[in-house]
Amino acid sequence: MASTPDITPQGATASVLSWLRRDLRAALCLGYLLALVIASVAAPLIAQHSPIEQSMDMLAPPSGAHWLGTDDLGRDVFARMVYGAPMSLYASMVAVGVGLALGLPTGMLAGYLGGRVDTVISRIIDTLLAFPGIILAVAVTGALGIGLTNAMIAVGIVFAPNIARLIRIQTIVVKNELYVDAARSFGMPVRGIILRHIVPNAIQPIIVQVTVMLAGALLAEASLSFLGLGVQPPWPSWGQMLARGYTYMEIAPEQMYAPGIAILLTALAYNGLGESLRTRLDPTSRSRR
Amino acid sequence: MNMQLVRFLGWRAVQVLPVLAMATLAIFGLIQLVPGDPAATIAGEYATAENIEAIRRDLGLDRPLWEQYGTWLWNALQGDLSNSLLTGLPVLDEVARRLPPTLFIAVFALLISICIGVPLGILAATRADSALDRFVTSVASLGVAVPNFWLGMIFVSIFALGFGWFPTTGARPISEDFWGAVHHAALPAATLATAGIAEIARQLRSSLIEVLQSQYVRTLRAKGLSPARILWKHGLRNAALTLLTVIGLVFNHTLGATVATEAVFAIPGAGSMIVNAAINKDFPVLQGAVFVLVLIVISMNLIIDLLYTVLDPRVKKD
Amino acid sequence: MSTRNVSVRFPVGRGRVLTAVDDVSIEIRRGETFGLIGESGSGKSTIGRAIVCLERPSEGTILHDGRDPHALRASELRRHRRQYQIIFQDPNAALDPRMTILKSIREPLDVAGEGSRADRDQRARDLMNRVGLGEGFADLYPHQLSGGQKQRACIARALTVRPSLIVCDEAVAALDVSIQADILNLLAELQQEFGLTYLFITHNIGVVEHISDTIAVMYLGQIIEIAPADRLAEHFLHPYTQALLSAEPVALPSGMRPDHRIVLEGELPSPMDPPSGCRFRTRCRFATGICAAEAPKLRELAPGHRTACHHAETFRLDPNLKEGSQ
């Protein structure tokens, strides 16, 4: 009997490694994101300055002491960049987490139960998709109260209908599989069927969608913090740094570059990872290997 | 006019009603998301008990939920979106004043997106896997990953501060000074358009490639039809439907993105109005402005649906 | 086990309804093998699914030992239905691709919560051995097995809950001919050993005629002939049964074999819009006016042999017609 080894636990690690060796883009994206995580955890070790300590040395150009210069309150820009990284990661996770927590069960229930429940939930999904995303997020943030977590919960609420729509379709496909009928025939309760059969088999396209949404959440966090609805001073976030830098654009234009580039690269890394995952998980492209 | 078509259009319009009802419910429900006592939150930290009570009465928060919703909807349908808590002015007047600049840059951006995105998509699709295609594809993936408002800042620093070609900020009323308005809106619209260009080029490319590689088109090619003729007659007609869907999506995104763009260019539009209302907890303004924008998106979707039927006769029979 | 006037209908959009099973009453005795034959689209699978409660009858009742399972409360139904298992045509689709074979086979026991985890593992492994699937397959995934091996796994899984009846829905149709016989033999052995009742659903009369006690023939959602297996092959009374038998390539004793194949003309009519009267009349060589006007009822023409054909008697009396010599 031929056995393909990429299913056993050790095999999974090996297959991920060989995938990364084959797919340079995936390796780069994953490497960048990993570096970002490390920077977030080890921020105090990497940055020699405090991100919130002010000094009289304002809007200084980059130098040996301040690698990226200082901002309008004399705070070290590099330190603020490093300390902004965990904010961005946290923000993306909260938004996507809330989106999944709301969207997955709703879409799955609609898809599994069908009938009137499905009709009602689908209508609600369609309606929410008609809202311009950021505007809904701004409005919900206003209601929940300003702050990073609330803003990202709002973004998660905006994501939820997208996730629900995707998982609903997947659930409908999987629930008609014979192994689900078999499970029903030996008396498995609905909860067990959903957890043991439908979730593991329907989740794959969601994984790709999640990476794309992480990028969306990152950009939304930047926008909302830029607008003053996200991270509150004195704590730094890349979007909020852009807002401050923009005010002093004519005196110190270099202030706008670092945060913008950081946001761009991170969003690119998420999207690139999603694109690579899509190709890898697509059965038609996989069989070619 | 075809009777069947008329009936179909009527049916589509009726189908919008539940969406509209649900949207108003969601917008009305916003205030329910306020943690704790909404009246106390709105009144702020230093409010007296009387202040809070007054706000509760003004907003009708002391009445049952359904009654609140009914009153709000009934008034909204009659054009009364209540008054701003901050200024006391009618919300509808304020929205009417703020909406034109927002719509102007959004539509302007949509036009730019179509005018650049469509040719790029076609070029990339007809030369699939060429250097040009790879260039367009990478620019497109850059376009969806770049923070829009940051791009706006860079545009300002290059084209407004650097070359001085465009004014840095502000807007001109279209009715008074059309070319002035265009001049002021050019940079914000270009900023907004980048994401739209990327999206349109990407989607049009993949849908065109799918059509051009279909069995049907390969048969036409074998019959000796020129590639240009195939592209114009068959490829684009089939891709037009994709394009229409994408345009609807792009308009929705563009309208949303005005929120940040207006902040960058200091445009007194509906987006910045919503942001200020959110920061100040001015709920009537927040609800009213979101309501009007959602109405616009829903109407746009309806128009696209109708265009769909005109372009694709198959949809009619459904 | 019996069905009483069972109909199953499916909405197919825009208010239209597909009647997959129309007023079917059958009775399966304990320990027997009941063969159900029909073309695809005849509703034979739907009745099988209804019997194991995967479809709910739109009309009529399913009776399991005289009890209507749909009258039970949800939790009781879950416990009760374990006695009624089904084996599907496509063993590949019937196993969750993300579960090992052992996990799939053990799953019914996990659901039932019987015994300790080790006991359940052991019982699953015992059954794997019993169905001729060595324990070596326990930790493999479905895509690593052949079709026949997967079908053995499905059989083992169905047996874990000690069912009294198993519906075999085209259980061997998707397998290689050489493996079909192995699986059929296995099923026969298991029937002896576990005292099983089978409902054998197939489009291939050759598969069931040797192992069945009773055979029913289905056409467009209705039973058109039902008889003891040994009787049906020789004394069939319905033109459709004749056509099915004549289309069967497997060698029959020469006395039973029609001299000419009878090829059915035309397509199977749409079950959404079945013909009036006798449903087979549009493809029947003997159809007359009465066939269009009146739907024939099942009539008992010999002990245990019932047929729904207006012309069954003439058909029986004229051996020339039966030999298909025209």
From TrEMBL, chain A:
Keywords: Cell membrane, Membrane, Transmembrane, Transmembrane helix, Transport. Its main location: membrane. The chain crosses the membrane at residues 24-47, 89-114, 134-160, 206-231, 256-273. It is a multi-pass membrane protein. GO terms for biological process: transmembrane transport. GO terms for cellular component: plasma membrane. The keyword Transmembrane helix applies. This is Peptide/nickel transport system permease protein. It comes from Salipiger marinus.
From TrEMBL, chain B:
The chain crosses the membrane at residues 12-31, 103-123, 135-166, 178-198, 239-265, 285-308. Gene3D superfamilies: MetI-like. Keywords: Cell membrane, Membrane, Transmembrane, Transmembrane helix, Transport. It is a multi-pass membrane protein. Coiled coil: none annotated. It is found in: Cell membrane. The keyword Transmembrane helix applies. The keyword Cell membrane applies. Belongs to the binding-protein-dependent transport system permease family. This is Peptide/nickel transport system permease protein. The lineage of its organism: Bacteria, Pseudomonadati, Pseudomonadota, Alphaproteobacteria, Rhodobacterales.
Automatic annotation (TrEMBL), chain C:
Its main location: membrane. InterPro entries: AAA+_ATPase, ABC_transp_ATP-bind, ABC_transporter-like_ATP-bd, ABC_transporter-like_CS, Oligopep_ABC_C, P-loop_NTPase. One of its GO terms (cellular component) is plasma membrane. GO terms for molecular function: ATP binding; ATP hydrolysis activity. GO terms for biological process: peptide transport; transmembrane transport. It comes from the Bacteria. It holds the Pfam family ABC_tran. It is found in: Cell inner membrane. Residues 1-245 form the ABC transporter domain. Belongs to the ABC transporter superfamily. This is Oligopeptide transport system ATP-binding protein. It comes from Salipiger marinus.
